[in-house]
């Protein structure tokens, strides 16, 4: 294995670990936690930074691995395959695609696009799995996704600009 491949693999492992740590911190802070699942989550910050640092392919892989890490540590609540795919696999792996969308100064459009896809995915899960009306599911999921997105919009550009010197 080449040195650059080893470095990329190590960085991917670090981003997975950061995701788990940020997810656990979100659990401990207990902010915007919804009764039937969903919360203000800082975990996507690690996935977004990974995408901007390592690119969309490695970023998406880190998102997928992060879901399985959540499964192993027991922070996944799913109710069938549709719930697992929509609420976790699609919702978190999509953050890896953020680097495909252009950045304009400190405006990282990939954060908005991937958060919107996650919101849509979770909304569809609510509609399909819980048989909620679309607008009720959208309102429910938006109540924690909007704060999550706002945190990412503020934190990710600041961290990426600081980390560019190291990268």
Task: Give a short summary of the structure.
The chain is mostly helical and 167 residues long. The chain has helices spanning 3-29, 43-54, 56-73, 81-93, 109-128, 134-163; strands at residues 103-104, 107-108. The longest helix is centred in the last third of the chain and has 30 residues, at 134-163.
Q: Any overview of this molecule?
A:
This protein has 167 residues and is mostly helical. It has a single domain (3-23, 39-163), classed as Arp2/3 complex 21 kDa subunit ARPC3, CATH 1.10.1760. The protein is 72% helix and 2% strand. It has helices at 3-29, 43-54, 56-73, 81-93, 109-128, 134-163; strands spanning 103-104, 107-108. A two-stranded antiparallel ribbon has the order 1-2. Helix 5 (109-128) packs antiparallel against helix 6 (134-163). The longest helix has 30 residues, at 134-163.
Task: Tell me the strand order in the biggest sheet.
Answer: 1-2
Estimate the strand proportion.
under 5%
CATH C-level class is Mainly Alpha
Examine the coordinates and then state which fold CATH places here, giving the name of the CATH topology.
Answer: Arp2/3 complex 21 kDa subunit ARPC3
The share of residues in helices is: over 70%
The oligomeric state is single chain
Domain unit count: 1
CATH architecture: Orthogonal Bundle
Roughly how many Å apart are the termini?
A: 21 Å
